[in-house]
Amino acid sequence: MTRRPAILVVDDEPRSVEVIARVLEEEFDVFTAPGAEEARRILEHEWIQVIFCDQRMPKTSGVALLTEVRERWPDILRIIVTGYTEPDDMISAINEAGIYQFITKPWHPDQLLLAARNAAHLFHLQREHERLSLEMRLSLPAAEARIAARRAEVAQSFHFDALVRAPGSPLSEACLKAAQVATFDVPVLVAGETGTGKELLARAIHYSSLRSEKPFFAVNCGAIPDELLESELFGHKKGSFTGAHVTRIGLLDQADGGTILLDEIGDVSPAFQVKLLRFLQEGEIRPVGSNEAKRVNVRVIAATHRDLHGEVGRGRFREDLYYRLCAMVLTLPPLRERRADIPVLAQSLLDALAAQHGKKARGFTEEALACMQAYDWPGNVRELQNEVTRMLVLARAELLSADLLSPHVVRDAAAATRADRDVAAAIAVPDTGPLKDRVERMEATILMETLVRCRWNKSRAAEELGLSRVGLRAKLDRYGIARGGAFAKSH
Ligand SMILES: Nc1ncnc2c1ncn2[C@@H]1O[C@H](COP(=O)(O)OP(=O)(O)OP(=O)(O)O)[C@@H](O)[C@H]1O
């Protein structure tokens, strides 16, 4: 089964993206990005064939982005959507970015569709040409060896090593479990805050599994209304609803033999949970508007930033679906719980970004690293990635200094460092003195360390220490421990 051609639409105007996507998605798989950064992420992970890019965007111009696309992904057909048609602009854009076609605003839907069809067709011809010349130049075994090497290369970039971490990181534990479960054909639930690498881990599982030569698709279930999600996953028949101009093959069908990542599964409506459950129980899909069921063999990996088990308890997620999805639960810890990973991750992200942008950068100053390690990173690796990009863009020297960090990162890191320093000063255990005093001081030390680690969330600290909240409170009162207050043992 072949996939529909994939198109990426880049525009900072949500309304324009929506309108263009609506025109194209009957015939194409449409990905959208509000700017260059998200566009790069999609281009790195998806096999995009045509890109529609708005010329005027706040951070990067369409031509600049398409010039980069030309360098990194030369096969992709580049179309620019522009409000103005100065001949000089056009000529320089064609030269710089190798633009395949200009579409001027206001455009007509037919014009847009025609451009997309022609570009996708040309893309297909180029690939076919490439394949035939490769076959002519190489004997078949050699070509097969090349293909196998390329496959191995792809698998490598989505291997567990792609999850950069320091030796002994808590992330290694999740990777180890994931590697063990990869070859068992069972559903996996990946839990973790946003940006912790859930999709990266899901890809690594797929590429380490026996399904690695078959497709892997990721669907963000949280971002799509029920009807669209149903059509996206199960497909639809032509004419089954207003606007269904062509028959669409669902991703579960396209992924037959492979793996699908159902991202943000905790956001799926109760009605859709029933549809998913039926699919998981029966292994069959029925496209919207069709009476025929089709058997497919797809491994499901689900991901969520929610406490899905808790959602079951609260009656928001079906228990039967939960148990269908989680033969194995893998939890990715947030960056603030594995601070030792931050320097290696930052360096690895910097190396990749510097190579990508052709800018020299050696690393970070100690002060910058200290700030990064003290900051909490609520957006996890994705936020770190953005911060490193910002630093690289602003850098004037090869060693990136703390003043390049966003002001809120420096501010929050300084506050956290101050608090930790106060705690460290307060909890030093004396080398001499009566045993009882030293044991109590030690107990206070453990309480303080746990509270700092749990960011003063007393319920979490109590749970970790195996105490009730009341028990913890009594001990804190006894030792005079309070947030921001000095250690004042009360005896
Ligand atoms: N350990 C890691 N090493 C290198 N890159 C990482 C790591 N973890 C995450 N990333 C990168 O961070 C970005 C976010 O990762 P990913 O999309 O997998 O996170 P996620 O948990 O699925 O996020 P969301 O819940 O928001 O979808 C990606 O660009 C990914 O490549």
Automatic annotation (TrEMBL):
Coiled coil: none annotated. Residues 6-120 form the Response regulatory domain. One of its GO terms (biological process) is regulation of DNA-templated transcription. Residues 164-393 form the Sigma-54 factor interaction domain. SUPFAM superfamilies: CheY-like (SSF52172), Homeodomain-like (SSF46689), P-loop containing nucleoside triphosphate hydrolases (SSF52540). It comes from the Bacteria. Keywords: Activator, ATP-binding, DNA-binding, Nucleotide-binding, Phosphoprotein, Transcription, Transcription regulation, Two-component regulatory system. The modification 4-aspartylphosphate is found at residue 54. GO terms for molecular function: ATP binding; sequence-specific DNA binding. PANTHER family: PTS-DEPENDENT DIHYDROXYACETONE KINASE OPERON REGULATORY PROTEIN-RELATED (PTHR32071:SF117), TRANSCRIPTIONAL REGULATORY PROTEIN (PTHR32071). This is Sigma-54-dependent Fis family transcriptional regulator. The lineage of its organism: Bacteria, Pseudomonadati, Pseudomonadota, Alphaproteobacteria, Hyphomicrobiales.
